[in-house]
Amino acid sequence: MVKVVLINPQIPPNTGNIARTCAATTTQLHLVGPLGFEISDR
Predict the structure, then answer these.
(1) Nearest to 38 by CA among 17, 20, 15
(2) Cα–Cα distances in Å, from 13 out to 1, 5, 8, 18, 42?
């Protein structure tokens, strides 16, 4: 099983692209540390 870990991600569009790729490939995504943005940001 593949897992992706982002430590202190700062760029929301990149994080979103990675999250969508993980969802499409059923890969686990873990966001660790303080995020450089709020999840509710668009």
Answers:
(1) 15
(2) 25, 16, 14, 9, 9
Burial class of residue 3, CB neighbours in 10 A (0-12, 13-18, 19+): exposed
Distance of CA 33 to the CA centre of its chain: 12
What pLDDT does 12 receive? 92
Domain boundaries of the chain, sorted by first residue = 3-32
* Digit-coded pLDDT (tens) for 6-41: 999 999 999 999 999 999 999 999 999 999 998 875
